[in-house]
Amino acid sequence: MPTKYTSDMKNKFRLLLEYISLIAICLVFPSGFTFAQPNLPSVFPDRIILNPTPDPLTSLAITWRTDTTVHVGFCEWQLATDTKIKAEESNSVKSNTKTVEYQFKDEPKIIVNQHSLILSGLLPSTEYIYRVGFDANWSEWFQFRTPGKKNEEFSFVYFGDPQVGLKTEWPRLIRKAYQQCPDCRFMLYAGDIINRAERDIEWQEWFDAGSFIFSTIPQIMTPGNHDYSGLTLDHHWNSQFAQPTNGPSGLKGTCFFVDYPKLRLISIDSAAGSELEDENGYPLQEQKTWLDSVLYTNKKEWVIVTTHLPFYSTKENRDNPKLRKHFQPLLEKYKVDIVLTGHDHSYGRGRASDNINNKHTVVYVVSVSGSKFYLLGTKPWMEQSAGNLELFQTITIKENILMYKSYTASGLLFDEFMLKRNGNGEKKFTDFKAQK
Ligand SMILES: [Fe+2]
């Protein structure tokens, strides 16, 4: 008499099949369950990123990570060659290596060895190649160029907040920026690099987006409020970056300056101390004193300040009067040229001052590069503005002329102005966008 299969038997049979299939998958793919976690380190160097030192003409910082089985790292470097690379003819520098644990809420803890070192004794305006690694596990050879001397034209790229869309939309923007300005000497970020501080998977997405660009062109970051967890700077920041430490003692790697030919670039950490809410707070007072000193001693023709919070906001019902109260008099006294900011997730550019007797007007810019947008306000300070637009900017300095251009993700020129200094140091502002 044939067996009658009840629904209960069928369910048991189906469960048995599923169980057998699962065991088979585990046997064939023993690490199958790690496929969904792309931010795990390995013995191979990854997240290789360049940062400038205070003297980028002759030195350069390199940072990368591996898993914790790799206890040391090296950088092999030499002048760029057009023939087969002979690794044995390289200079070799040993890294400083430390183990770091990254934890975001209940996501898996990521434990890595961060390797960092500085190449020194470089020549200005020179092409070099390098690779990082240890034993048999090396990166490919990367290529970089040091900035030139005083009269050489140079450019850099400026991004407002990446923050959102790091895996989906931001990659095409940074790649277009690289296409637009492949010889830029650095790329600058006005804070909020990722959305949730400490979240390693977001840093993975940002590094994936930048890929070899980060290993080829030095990157400079000022932190935003999303790069802090409460009052604590994301632990990734000073482990995976090696930014200058010439700022106030409590703000190493977030408040600093870098000198390029004809340009002093200054980062103010406006996310420290709870976004400057406490105007008598330590970070604000320290930075104010420090900014006064680095502007006083500056000998460069052009000065650009970057900070996350806008001096003038593009968003309705947002304003940062304390920032202006404490820092704007210094910017105007020392004739700072441009302030590059983010935070408001829209675009605004204009010349403004809270001082009606002011003779020197700073150009203020708010920009956004990621896909998080706020509604654009109607603020009178803005001479040009836009909402719902991912943008990157190029700034080129050639002798007494500074050219500023803002581009969309598809490469359309959106905004453009020029600053030109005459022999007396007087400055002429030309708004090419307004002329169109
Ligand atoms: Fe922000």
Walk me through the topology.
Layout: H1 7-28, E1 46-52, E2 60-66, E3 74-79, E4 91-94, E5 96-102, E6 110-119, E7 127-134, E8 137-138, E9 142-145, E10 154-159, H2 170-180, E11 186-189, H3 200-210, E12 219-221, E13 228-229, E14 232-233, H4 237-240, E15 256-260, E16 263-267, H5 272-276, H6 282-296, E17 302-306, H7 321-333, E18 338-341, E19 347-352, E20 362-366, E21 384-386, E22 391-398, E23 401-408, E24 413-421, E25 427-431, H8 432-435
Parallel strand pairs: 10-11, 11-12, 16-17, 17-18, 18-20
Antiparallel strand pairs: 1-2, 2-6, 3-4, 3-7, 5-6, 7-8, 7-9, 10-22, 13-14, 15-16, 19-20, 19-21, 22-23, 23-24, 24-25
Helix pairs in contact: 2-3, 6-7
Residues 192, 224-226, 308, 343 line the site of fe (ii) ion.
At the fourth CATH level, what is the homologous superfamily of the largest domain?
Metallo-dependent phosphatases
Roughly what percent helix? 10-25%
Which ligands appear in the coordinates?
A: fe (ii) ion
- Biggest sheet layout: 7 strands, mixed
Query: What coarse outline follows from CA principal-axis ratios?
Result: globular
CATH domain class of the largest domain:
Alpha Beta
The CATH architecture term of the largest domain is 4-Layer Sandwich
Mean pLDDT: 91
Query: Are there runs of 5+ residues with pLDDT below 50, and where?
Result: none
State Rg. Answer: 25 Å
What's the β-strand tally? Answer: 25
Q: What's the number of domains?
A: 2
Which topology of the largest domain does CATH recognise? Purple Acid Phosphatase, chain A, domain 2
User: Given the structure, what is the number of helices?
Assistant: 8
Please identify the structural class as seen in this structure. Answer: alpha+beta
Content of β-strand: 25-35%
Oligomer: single chain
Distance between the termini: 91 Å
